Amino acid sequence: MLTVDFSRFPLAPGDRVLDLGCGAGRHAFECYRRGARVVALDQNAEEIREVAKWFAAMKEAGEAPEGATATAMEGDALALPFPDESFDVVIISEVMEHIPDDKGVLAEMVRVLKPGGRIAVTVPRYGPEKVCWALSDAYHEVEGGHIRIYRAEELLAKMRGAGLKPYGTHHAHALHSPYWWLKCAFGVDNDKALPVRAYHKLLVWDIMKKPLATRVAEQALNPLIGKSFVAYATKPHLPRLDEAGTDAP
């Protein structure tokens, strides 16, 4: 289940991609399939081990084109172990709401992104997330849990403040919002409640079968109750200076 829409976020074979806070690796796997040179980074060692296993399995199965590469590694989002301007593309999906120093993370992403490079940021959307917080303290008051809820313009302003130029936004996963509202209402750790189990079966069916009816329904509902807010931006090229130190034409 991808949150980033690659029709709005073009990826070319050979692009060097950083999936920051990769989690289980869903976006990293898609970039690898598209022929990118992928680095999946996360602070969770167990998840990184699993991502590495899946990269190896994909290579063995021939799922990635020739020339594509994939590396999984542990790392700190606030101190990325890469030189300046190392990546053509950076993806950070459902991560920034967990990190106290979100401006520091943005600064690090901009540092390692090449001028002209592209970045995709996804976070829980304000409205649906606010409902979850209202229904359940346990949803967010856990170690490593969500510490803030972003309004769209707040996130875009922080991206602009970091030197990025946003060029597009959308919402995703509308069908997942009611699931999380049910989870919060019945208990985030209570997977036995009948409404939660029934809705989870629906989601699994939808993900596996991708029926037209639910695809159309989700597209129609995304602007209203989409669970995630997605923003795309570029890192502008700096003006070239001539020998006199003025902007070159």
Automatic annotation (TrEMBL):
Domain of life: Bacteria
Any Pfam family: Methyltransf_11
Residues annotated as domain Methyltransferase type: 18-120
GO process annotations (BP): methylation
Matches recorded under InterPro entries: Methyltransf_11 (IPR013216), SAM-dependent_MTases_sf (IPR029063)
GO molecular function term, any single one: S-adenosylmethionine-dependent methyltransferase activity
Entry keywords, A to Z: Methyltransferase, Transferase
Nucleotide-binding found in the keyword field: no
PANTHER family per UniProt: 2-METHOXY-6-POLYPRENYL-1,4-BENZOQUINOL METHYLASE, MITOCHONDRIAL (PTHR43591:SF24), METHYLTRANSFERASE (PTHR43591)
Name of the protein: Class I SAM-dependent methyltransferase
Origin organism lineage: Bacteria, Bacillati, Actinomycetota, Actinomycetes, Kitasatosporales
